[in-house]
Structures are given as C-alpha cells and as structure tokens.
Design goal:
Four copies of one chain form a homotetramer. Chain A is mostly helical. The first copy, chain A, contains nine helices and no strands. Chain A has two domains: 55 residues, Arc Repressor Mutant, subunit A (Orthogonal Bundle); 136 residues, Tetracycline Repressor, domain 2. Chain A is elongated and about 60 Å long. Chain B binds a DNA duplex (21 and 21 nucleotides) through helix 1 and helix 3.
DNA sequence: AATGAATGAGGCTTCATTCAT
DNA sequence: AATGAATGAAGCCTCATTCAT
C-alpha cells in the first residue's frame, strides 16, 4: 500500500460531501436551473462524469443537498431546546442567538434562500422541508411562547401567528444575506440585529402595560 | 371604421402589458431560467415570435417586468406617506396596512420573491431595485421611526436596524406567499398577521416600561 | 384627379424595379441567405408585406433580379458586335472597353459576383445565366478570335480556351470590385487595367514572332 | 494499452481537422449562411454538439477554416519562389504550374471562391486573407515581372496592374471550378488552360516586336 | 473509481411568409 | 395597393447525461 493510500481513501470517502458542498454554494448563488453540473464538478475538483458515480441526476443531487443541509439545522435547534432551563424569554433568546451562532454563518445558511427560490419547482422537496424543518422549528418557538403565556410572562396572543413574527426577521436576515450583493443586504452586523429583535420582543411580547 | 377596429387596436396596444403580466407570473413561479418563453407567449395568447416584436430578448423582458412591477409599489408607498397626518405609530400602521391593501394581493406582490431568487444572477437589476424600492421604502419607515423617537413616542434605538425589523415580517409574508404552496406559507390571514405585528410593535417600540 | 396622381402612378409602376434594384444591391453585398427581405423593403421604402404583392417569394425575387440584371449585359454586348466593322483586334478592343463603359460601373456589375457566390445553391439560375450570358458572351469573343485567326491576324490557338483567357481578367475585375472592400480590390483604375490587358493581348495573340 | 487505443486517440486528435475539412467543403458549396452546422457534423461523422467541443461558434469555425486553409497556399508559393533559379519567365511558369499542382486540385482550392462570396460579411477575415495571401502572392509575381523588365526580357509596363493580369486567369480558374456545376465552369483541362495563358504571356510580356 | 469525449433533446432567436385591416 | 402585426419553421447553441477507456 502506498504511503498516501489512507489520505487518498479519505478523500474518496469525502467525495459526496465535497460535491454537495460545491453544489450547495452554486445552487444558492444561481438557482437550480442556473447551476451547471460542470461548474459543480470543477469546484469540487473532479470531472463531470464523476458526479454521476454518486448522484443519479441533477435533481437527485439537489434533493441530497437540501436534505443534508437541513439536518444540522434541526440538530442544532432541538439540542438547544432540550438543554434549556429558565424563563420562556430566555429560551427564545437562546434559540435565536445560539442557533445563529451554530448555523447562521455556515454554508447551510443559504438553504432558506434556496428553498424560497425553488420550492414551487420542487413541491416534494418543499414538503419535505416544511415537515422536517419549518414545522419542527415552529414547534420549538411555539412551545416557548406558549410557556410564557401560560406563566403570565407574555400577554396572551395567537401563538401560531406570533411564531411567524418571531421567526420572520431571522429568516429575512438569512435570505437577504444570500440573495443580495454585499452592501445591499441591509445587515453587516447580525448579532446587533438579533439583539435588537429580542429587545423589541421583550416588551412587545409582554404587551400593553396598562 | 369597422366595428371591431378599436377592439383590435386596443389589443395591440395592450400586448406588452399582457406579455409582461404573463411573464411576471411565470418568472415568479419558475424563476428566470426555468421559465420558457413559449409558455409566456402561450399564456398571453400569442405565438413565440410575437414576443420579439415587443422585447429584444428574454432578459429584456425580465428587466421590463421588474421595472414596471416596481413602479406601483413606489407610487403606493410614497402616496401614503405624503398624505399622512398624525402620530408616528399611526403612520407605521397606515404604511403597513394600506400598502398591503394596495399591493399585497396584486400580481406585483410576487416581485420580492423574484428579486430574492434572481438578484445574484442579475446584479444590475438588483441594484436598480435596491435604489428605487428598498432605499425609498426604508426611508419612509425610517422617518416615521425617527419622528417617534424624537417626540418620545418611541424609545431611542438604532433606526436603521429597527427599520429592518419592522419591514422583515411584511417581506416574509410576501415571499412565503409566492414561494410555498398553499398550506405551507404559514399565513392564510394576512390582515391578522399584520395587525399582530403592529400589536407587538406598539409596546415593543415604546421600550422598557418603568 | 389630384395633381400628383401621375407622379404617384409612375412610382407604383416602378415599384418592382425599385425593389429589384434594392434587392440586387443587398444580394451582391450579403449573398442570398444573408439578405433579409425586411432590409430590401426598407431600402426600397416600402413595407415587408408589399414585396409579396410583386414577388411570390424570396427566391422568385432573386430569380427576377438575376434575369433582369442579365438583359442589359446581353443587349450591350450584342449591339456592339453587330455594329462592328474593322479588324478582329479592334472588335475585341471595342467589346471590352465599350462593354465596360456600358455595364461595368452600373449596378448590374455586381451580378457576376452574385452568380459565383450562389450558383451552386441555385442550379436553375446558374443554367439560365450560363445559357443566356456566358454562352453568348463567349460566342461574341470567340467569333472575333476565330476571325483573327482565319485572317492570319492572330496565331492559331484553341479558341475556346483563349476565350476564357480573354474574359477572365474582366470578370475578375468585376468580381473583386464587388467582393472586397475598397483598397483590397486591386483596381482603382479599370480603364488602365483594361488597356493593359489589351496591350498584352495585342502581341500575345499574334504569337511567336519569327 | 488496448489494441485500438491508439486508433481512438488518433481519431480524437484528428477531430478538429476532420471537422474543418467537412466545413470547408460545405462553406464553399453553400456559403456561410447557407451551411448548417448539423450538416457539417454529419459529414464529419459526429453529432451537432461535438462541434462545440472544438469550436466556440459557427463563426469561429469559419475563421479557423479560412486560416488553416490559407497556410498551405502560402507555404507552397513561397517555397517555389525561394528555390527558383533561371529566367524571369521560367519563374512565372513554375509559379503558375507548380502552384496549381500543389494546391489547385486540393480541398483548399475552394478558398478563393469562399473569400469572394463572404468577404463583405466578414471584413476581418477578408483583411487577414488580403494581408497574408493576396499581398504575398502579388509580391511573388511582382518580383518576377520586375526582374524580367529590368533585364530587358519583358517590356516595361506598370508592374502592379500586370500582376493582376497574370493572376486573374488562375483565380478565375479556381473560382469557376468551385462556383459552377461541372460542364459550366469552362475548363475541364486546367493544365492546357495554364499552358495557353503562359503562351499568351510569353509574347505578350515581351511587347511590341519592332 | 475516474475521466472527458460524445450525444441529442430542448430553449432562445431569426426571419420568410401570411393576412386582417 | 399597402401595411405591419402575427406566425411558426428552422437554426444556433447549451448542457444534462452516457459510456468507452
């Protein structure tokens, strides 16, 4: 066995991940139809044909990219919730800030923009994403809100809609970050943005102070 | 003049608008690359070649669609602000609810999703949109916030970031509505959603009580 | 009858000729396939549809252009020959110089280049041209040469091939003039060129002296 | 190495040359606009898309065909001149007959017809051809003529124009051969034609005897 | 496992031709 | 007789996919 066989082997085993990372970048940047498999292969440092050793088609690659990209988001979010102890607002705080720290600056952060752009072309993928990420993410936020309302920490409001309003600024942060060129995405300081969002929520959720 | 001469003339004069309306629908649904000009033509009830009597290329059609789609948004928003008299929060309220009433349910409401999906493929278009819509829309909201902070109606906060947070839920409403299939877009009751957003803002903007 | 009715009528009657003149120019410049009927119509100052009032198709227009363009060449050449009295070389001289004077600088001078470029795409047209121009033109030159050889004015040579050699420089003059841009067509002084050709022929046809 | 590996490799390396040969034939026959890339591919025994592995566009293919087709003409002609020793007329004789032997019956012989037909549509290509073939070919003939005039072998005449007259019948031979169908191109015996041209020149260049 | 040459379906675009006015 | 809007066939070109090596 040659001295760099293990290195070679490791590379081989990483091939799918490398290809998916390259594909994610390009899908986010150019959309599904606008991405050329040749560019994906080149960015991953392999030939076009090699792609087909690991993925049956462009669409299969796309689905894999989405599914793999979605897992860390779930793991991250649910781990945070499971470990939480403390007030409802503190949970919200943790969820938003820690989730950003774990996901927001990684390659996976482009997924929401990709979903938004392509959901109507790939309804199955959209459903998968909805069931596995949106629904579970909403449940996380929803339970925190419900707990706060039950304890009197928050004013009673329609929980489902409030969930949307808590999530929306975070999603927009991610989406704009990957949709617009630098300087047009509105936010060069995500931490500050999230902090201010929480600041508004702190009193906002409490509701009319007589 | 024959009885249907005016009818024919009207059709001709409306052709560009009809084509652009058809194109907007399809661009929003399928994205730029995923839209076939033949489908645009068919939806507008003409043949493929007819498109080229009015637009030089697919990209020219796209640019026209964006530019024309942007104008009503501007006109609507700035009209609302110009006519306003009253408190800062009331202005916010009017801007968000009236703007939705005027734009939110029209065909133009798909534009933000389209921008988000295609901005990186069409930087010039993105810049145009940024300069003509985002910047001016932000200025509108920003001046209302500034007025409220100056008068003591709102707590002092970073205005630019607060603008983002006021706008984000509205944008997400529009984007999800055109990105996801019915039942997955989170909101079947936009008025309620906007009202709740304003409700959270009412106390949120005021800031820490006591 | 309005005062300019006759003028109007005259224009109408000239339409086909105007269209053919415009078409000839463009066919010579761009070739058959490279010429757009819209450009022909525009150059003639009419709309595209009007062309079809006078010509059944692009190919019909082309054939008409060739046929009409060929007639003056014939008339000119045969008139010269019929009127001639004098030596054989003087006839050659007259044919080449007078024919140039009558045709060489007119719009019809582009026809040979057009034939050369398109003959293989339009064999019928090529045959027509061959029968009606080449054959008759060759006969003209050939009879002059034959007469000179019979009278001892010229050395005896293969008449058919000599005809080619007498004609070739004149054809090249025409062809290059319409094929190449100014400054690349070799000849800015056709009269001088023709005179020198005749000068070479004068002794050349006579043949080996002593 | 498998038995037909070298065969396959050779095929690949020959692809561009095979494609250009096929393209040259068709461009000469039908002109640039009249040639379909699908036909070029088919004649070379490959599919449409394969063309684009080697040439960026139809126009790039055309330019390559011209440039490659021009090189042998140059090499042939200048080699003949460089090796020459003897009288000026003998040089002319060699240039015309040997050049014909080396080029006249090959595929490259169609190039002049192609140039004549397309020069006005491709001015850059025409300039290239003018600079690299016409100018150098003329210089070759011109120096032979000049030498003959200086030595008294030829009568003194305008050299540039005489060059045109020496070349013209050869060019016409080539052009007609590729422009007209068999039986209409005037010459089925090029050697005889060239010999007679030289025969006329022999005394013609000497000029008026006594 | 990897390559990259080859394929061909499909989309954008042009333009000869038609036709209602 | 004239217009010019409309059509649709056809050609260039791209790129996902295949396959021999």
């Amino acid at each position: 066995m040659s001295p760099n066989a293990s290195l070679r082997k490791r590379r081989k085993e990483d091939r799918p991940a490398e290809l998916m990372a390259a594909a994610l970048d390009l899908f986010v940047e150019k959309g599904f139809a606008g991405t050329r498999l040749e560019d994906v292969a080149q960015r991953a440092g392999v030939s076009k044909g090699t792609l087909y050793l690991y993925f049956d088609s462009k669409e299969a690659l796309f689905n894999n990219v989405i599914q793999e990209g979605v897992i860390p988001v779930l793991v991250e979010g649910e781990g945070i919730a499971a470990r939480h102890q403390g007030s409802a607002f503190e949970l919200l705080e943790k969820l938003l800030t820690n989730w950003w720290a774990g996901i927001g600056e990684t390659g996976f952060a482009g997924i929401p923009k990709l979903i938004v752009a392509e959901a109507r072309n790939f309804p199955d993928m959209a459903r998968f994403y909805y069931e596995n990420v949106i629904r579970r993410g909403r449940a996380l936020i929803g339970s925190a809100l419900q707990r706060g309302m039950d304890s009197g920490e928050f004013a009673r409001r329609d929980v489902e809609t409030t969930v949307d309003l808590v999530i929306a600024p975070i999603l927009m942060l991610l989406i704009l970050r990957h949709a617009m060129a630098d300087g047009q995405n509105g936010q060069d300081n995500p931490q500050h943005y999230i902090a201010l969002h929480l600041d508004l929520l702190r009193t906002g959720l409490k509701g009319s102070q007589l």
